[in-house]
Specification:
Strand content: 25-35%
Radius of gyration: 24 Å
Number of strands: 16
CATH topology of the largest domain: Dihydrodipicolinate Reductase, domain 2
Bound molecules: L-homoserine
Length: 427
């Protein structure tokens, strides 16, 4: 064997970064693999510029017997899924950054890989540059994983950071994040929490050896977070972050992606802009924290090239695929706790008319539904508005189903001017 050959499918932002690292660190990579690593062909369905080593059809690249590893960086569901599956069936090992395909087709991808005795590496699919897949899969392999919690989306974290630091509206911060170039081609995937849910599904499937599906995750994005909420959260000593969380308790697994109030003293509060962080609790190790750039060209490319290096080493010594990379047992079932059966403290914001008896009415409905109030705060409205005055309440830990019932009843009261807002408090 003279060199390990790579077929690259998808020559966008990350693909270009991968080529750059392979060129810049060529010698270093060769010394780490023991053989040179070379790009043998690049396919892009919509090339915007001339590409050297260009192969117009990905099918030809996959059929090329000289290619050892196919790197899929197209994104989206199709043809990315087909590229991954047909590469495995053609006897190639695969590196992908595609969280959407992995989360949706976990079973198909990993049963095909196992049947064909090939490997799929996917470090770049979760938290960009951070080696959390390898960390969880290998570094923490001795542990029973009890909790995974993280800031897993750079775009929303960028927006929330800008809203917090500059007191700007969501829409202004969104434009800035888009300009910075982290957002998915469909930014609603970022904003509605779907990107975070895909990543949480991957981490959870890896941690618990069973396929956790995105629809099993209670998912809310950040579009309901206002400048006002950021301001009130700060008054109580919190910052708002989009948190993906999976917790395994005696009743089963609870899974959520939602905006949360995080205490300013918590490490997550200091995770800013496109940075991501993941905290994992293992029974033997306790808490482990991963931190780094979660989005952007070179951070994602760093993870892809590291995967290429580990795979290339195994291809070189003929061991690639002899043992599967991940633990996955399709027959293993895990109980998922319904979102309305989970517990937690919450931040509530109401817009109510400012007259005697309003607070007691709201508090009365909460009490009737067994929601206990920890703190109350009211301020004159920031702009004179017909929406009434903001009333903020923090609750003690409460059943989520009871809370939602209470909020529905409160929203029906004539004294309430707009739909109430609730975000979980993470302590
Ligand atoms: N759109 C993603 C993010 C890119 O903002 O985190 C990395 O997956």
């Amino acid at each position: 064997m003279k060199s390990i050959k790579i077929g690259l499918v998808g020559y966008g932002t990350v693909g270009k970064g991968v080529v750059k690292i392979l060129e810049q660190n060529r010698r270093l990579i060769e010394s780490r693999v023991g053989y040179p690593v070379e790009i043998a062909g690049i396919c892009d369905v919509r090339p915007v510029e001339p590409i050297s080593l260009y192969v117009p059809r990905y099918q030809d690249l996959i059929a090329n017997p000289a290619i050892d590893i196919v790197v899929e960086l197209i994104g989206g569901y199709e043809p990315a899924r087909t590229v991954i599956l047909s590469s495995l069936k053609a006897g190639k090992n695969v590196v992908t950054a595609n969280k959407a395909v992995l989360a949706k087709y976990w079973n198909e991808v990993f049963t095909t890989a196992r049947a064909r005795k090939k490997l799929v590496y996917f470090e770049a699919s979760v938290a960009g540059a951070i080696p959390v897949i390898q960390g969880l899969n290998e570094g923490l392999a001795a542990n029973r994983i009890e909790k995974i919690s993280g800031i897993l989306n750079g775009t929303t974290n960028y927006i929330l950071t800008e809203m917090t630091k500059k007191s700007i509206d969501f829409s202004v911060a969104l434009k800035q994040a888009q300009k910075a170039g982290f957002a998915e081609s469909d930014p609603s995937f970022d904003l509605e929490g779907i990107d975070t849910a895909n990543k949480l599904a991957i981490l959870s499937s890896l941690a618990w050896g069973s396929w956790i599906k995105v629809p099993q995750i209670y998912t809310r994005g950040i579009t309901a977070v206002t400048k006002e909420d950021v301001y009130f959260a700060a008054k109580f000593g919190y910052v708002i972050k989009l948190i993906g969380q999976a917790h395994r308790g005696p009743r089963g697994l609870s899974l959520s992606v939602q905006p949360c109030l995080v205490p300013k003293r918590h490490a997550f509060a200091a995770v800013e802009k496109e940075y991501n962080a993941v905290e994992i609790h293992g029974d033997a190790v306790g808490d482990v924290m991963f931190y780094g750039k979660g989005a952007g060209q070179m951070p994602a490319a760093s993870a892809v090239v590291s995967d290429i290096i580990f795979l290339a080493r195994q291809v070189a010594n003929g061991t690639a695929g002899q043992v599967p990379y991940i633990t996955y047992d399709p027959s293993q079932k895990i109980n998922i706790i319904a979102p309305n059966k989970t517990e937690g403290a919450h931040y509530l914001r109401f817009h109510a008319v400012d007259k005697p008896g309003v607070l007691s009415k709201i508090a009365g409905v909460l009490g009737k539904h067994a929601v206990s109030i920890a703190r109350v705060y009211q301020e004159e409205p920031h702009n004179s508005s017909k929406r009434g005055v903001p009333v903020i309440m923090l609750t003690h830990s409460t059943n989520h189903g009871d809370l939602l019932k209470a909020l529905k009843a409160i929203d029906a009261l004539p004294i309430v001017k707009s739909k109430s807002i609730q975000f979980k408090i993470e302590d």
